[in-house]
Write a structure and sequence with these properties.
Elements: H1 3-69, H2 74-100, H3 105-140, H4 144-233, H5 248-329, H6 335-363, E1 374-377, H7 378-393, E2 399-405, E3 410-413, H8 415-431, E4 438-446, E5 449-455, H9 463-466, H10 476-482, H11 489-499, E6 503-508, E7 514-521
Parallel strand pairs: 2-4
Antiparallel strand pairs: 1-3, 4-5, 5-7, 6-7
Helix pairs in contact: 1-2, 1-4, 2-3, 3-4, 4-5, 5-6, 7-8, 8-11
């Protein structure tokens, strides 16, 4: 027999004995429930008989008071009679309930004596009650002596002797019934105890036999396998196990021997491969060191490039600011010119802020500037960006349209930085749109966020550019041919949006052209 079938046999035997024990316990519980029900019925009948005894004494006393004190005591007698009748009703009810708990013909036959005694007590009480009516009739006729004599003979004597004897017989019968039930329960308990002991002993013997067999078929092979594993771990690859029998452990021992043979064969190959791997690791380490040096050089040159660009752009910025200040201080200028010059001055300030950001990036990529968060109406932000975008679009006769579908929501953002991101998107759309076309700036609410989309009518974005359009200094082939710039605009816009815990994406629109989508949370999540 294989180990598997030994285990199955052990489990089956265990389940059988568990089922037997459960059956014994269930039988014991049922026996206890039956005994409790029987004792409860006897107890209730005992209580009613005891109550009936007290009511009988009160009944006799009330008859005597009517004879001695007159008809004024008749209500008390009627109350005593009612209590007697109610007690007999309860006695019949508990007797029927006790009989209903019986399950065998012999038990029903034993209970017939209780029914007979109950009937005899009821008949005797009716005879006594009839005699009491005769006593009251004699009293009403003025025959007091005859009434007293009849009371003593047919009422008081029968209640104190015949009725009391029946009550005592009923109580004795209930006591004997309790004793009989208790004796039967004890007998059943002893029988169940013997069965439990026999089942326990048989379970112990079967468990010991099956356990010993499992011990021999499992523990010894496991110890042999453990010894073989320790031998392999210590480097003794020539160690082999002795194979006996045809069970699972025999198959496992053969597999172990095959594994040891394979390991011994592979060890020699691994030693040779180790030497080759060592030399290969040294070569790759030198290559990684050289690549790291080249990356550091690229990083240095990138930072230097940003610093140079910022430095070169600062000079025309200074000139632009100076010219705007002179125009504002001039005399005789029209108000329209003054307003235009104020716009030039404001744009110069925005450009100066952008150059400051570029200089900060040149110093350190990890250096962040804090956002100045305020509550701004989304429509105001979009309109301001569209107004500045018109300055970029007018030379190419491109029309910028706005479509506000956000319901007038507010955003908690840095308006200068977010407007900068939108203007970068508009500038990118203008550069890639044919002259005379339209750019649509649309806002919508999507899943608890506001989406700001910039649609153009250009040639769209190629699959090669999609993955890198937000990389710093990446311009792509299309940009290199049709647009100027450093390739950092979309990268700066992406950084601004993500610091506001938003997302930005550039895709091809279903109607043609490209669409730049910025999604911002409606609830503030804190500055990045």
């Amino acid at each position: 027999m294989t180990v598997r079938w030994r285990i199955v046999a052990f489990e089956i035997v265990t389940l059988i004995f568990v089922g037997l024990m459960i059956g014994v316990m269930a039988l014991a519980l049922r026996l206890a429930d039956d005994f409790v029900a029987r004792v409860d019925g006897v107890h209730r009948r005992f209580e009613v008989i005891a109550e009936l005894d007290g009511n009988a004494n009160n009944y006799a006393e009330q008859i005597a008071e009517v004879l001695l004190l007159g008809a004024e005591q008749m209500p008390d007698f009627q109350q005593a009679r009612t209590e007697m009748n109610e007690a007999f009703d309860r006695l019949r009810e508990v007797t029927r309930a006790e009989v209903s708990t019986l399950s065998g013909l012999d038990e029903v036959r034993r209970e017939l004596s209780d029914i007979e005694i109950t009937g005899r007590m009821a008949e005797l009480y009716r005879a006594i009650d009839g005699a009491a009516e005769k006593v009251f009739a004699l009293q009403r006729e003025g025959k007091q002596a005859e009434a007293v004599e009849l009371f003593r003979r047919d009422v008081e004597y029968k209640l104190s002797n015949d009725f009391e004897n029946l009550l005592e017989a009923a109580l004795d019968d209930e006591r004997s019934e309790v004793a009989r039930e208790l004796a039967e329960v004890r007998e059943q308990q002893q029988r169940l105890l013997l069965w439990s002991v026999a089942i326990a002993l048989l379970a112990a013997l079967c468990g010991a036999g099956l356990g010993f067999g499992l011990h021999r078929s499992i523990v010894r092979p496991v110890q042999a396998l453990a010894g073989g594993a320790r031998a392999l771990a210590s480097g003794s690859f020539s160690h082999r196990l002795e194979v006996k029998g045809s069970d699972e452990f025999a198959a496992l021992s053969r597999t172990f021997n095959e594994m040891a043979t394979a390991i011994e064969a592979q060890r020699a190959g691994l030693m040779a491969a180790q030497d080759r791997l060592h030399s290969e690791v040294e070569a790759r380490t030198r290559e990684l060191r050289d690549a790291n040096a080249r990356l550091r050089d690229v990083d240095v040159r990138r930072a230097q490039f940003l610093a140079d660009v910022s430095h070169e752009l600062r000079t025309p910025l200074t000139i632009l600011r100076g010219e705007a200040d002179v125009a504002l201080r001039g005399r005789g200028d029209a108000e329209a010119l003054r307003e235009a010059l104020r716009g030039v001055q404001g744009q110069a300030g925005e450009l100066g802020a952008l150059l400051d950001d570029l200089l900060a990036f040149a110093r350190s990529d990890a250096e962040d500037q804090a956002l100045e968060l305020v509550q701004v109406r989304a429509a105001d932000l979009v309109n301001a960006a569209a107004q500045e975008g018109e300055v970029l679009a007018s030379p190419r006769e491109i029309l910028i349209e706005t479509e506000l579908n956000d319901g007038g929501v507010d955003l908690v953002i840095d308006p200068r930085r977010m407007k900068q991101a939108l203007v970068i998107g508009l500038d990118n759309a203008v550069k890639h749109s044919p002259p005379g076309t339209r750019i649509r700036l649309e806002t919508t609410r999507v899943d608890g966020k506001i989406a700001i989309a910039i649609f153009d009518e250009g040639s769209g974005v190629s699959d090669a550019d999609k993955a890198r359009v937000f990389d710093r200094f990446y311009r792509g082939d299309a940009k290199a041919r049709t647009a100027q710039g450093l390739g950092i605009g979309l990268a700066i816009a992406k950084d601004i949006v993500e610091r506001h815990h938003g997302t930005i994406a550039l895709e091809n629109a279903a109607s043609g052209g490209a669409v730049l989508t910025i999604k911002l949370p409606l609830e503030p999540t804190g500055a990045a």
